[in-house]
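User: Sequence in, structure out. Go.
Assistant: Echoing your sequence, followed by the structure tokens.
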Amino acid sequence: MPFDLSLWGLPALLAAFAGAALLISIAGVTVVTRADEIADRTGLGEAIVGALILGGATSLAGLVASVTAAWQGHPSLAISNAIGGIAVQTAFLAIADITYRRANLEHAAASTTNLSLSALLVTLLSLLLVTSFGPDLTIWGVHPASVVLVLAYVTGLRMVERSRSEPMWFPRKTSLTVPDEPSRDHGGRKRSSAWVYGTFGLAVAALGAAGYLVTQFGIAVADRSGLDDTAVGGLLVATVTSLPELVTTITAVRRKALTLAVGGIIGGNAFDTLFLAASDVVYRDGSLFHAFNQQDLFVVAVTILMTGVLLLGLLRRERVGVATIGFESVLILVLYVAAVLVML
């Protein structure tokens, strides 16, 4: 049930936002640390664990936020949070590139899995765009595209896993490439599997709870400030619920789990498209995909463009660009800032 925030002033709501952001940040550090250990224990590899486990876990706050917003009759907030989150998380990858000073992050984290994930993300985003212009129909209140989106995601992940287990080509290794190799030392301590998975689960639960709180605060901020749901969802809620991706990506880079860092962002972005499928199920006023406004469509288009630039960077593998970051990171940040200015 939604909280009664009618007596809260705007400063109090913003302070509550900051508290939720802090909770998300703390839980995010725990999630990435445990995910790296899970990658080593299971042998699945950093890219797959980054896409499936880390990407899904860090996206939980955003998923809860979008579903809650749609359920409470705020479709624009649900949509803008999902798509805006993908855009800001792609920008976070460029920020992580800045923190890795040895070389361009996309060069060092070369992986056919991450290339496949990027192609999957472009496909899923394009599907959202096409659906918004298609027939407005629902079956038991759910648009068929919601089912197609989930099936496309699952099928795409199977193809991504096959590209890892049975690769048809390999990225060339250079002196700057950091391979995805299991580590036997995680803080110098031996931890039981129960402890690793247990703390991971608690951190994920904290992210989900924080996502619900952020939604309630976001709706109240929109009412108090006079901003529309798209602006609040795309800029404020999306940024706060995406903080786990920023924290986990930078943490992974510092742990030299570079493939995990890149895979976590791209895989998480692909998972985030499912926010709209889940939100469509609980949205009771027709098809959520046809509640897109012009700003929502603009953000989807910009996000596809940003992902395309990232994919080009993963293929080009520039060793060292401007200030030791690749051309793709510079362009991604420019595109994101430009999109924010257009939305304001």
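User: And one key feature?
Assistant: Residues 40 and 182 are 5 Å apart (CA to CA).
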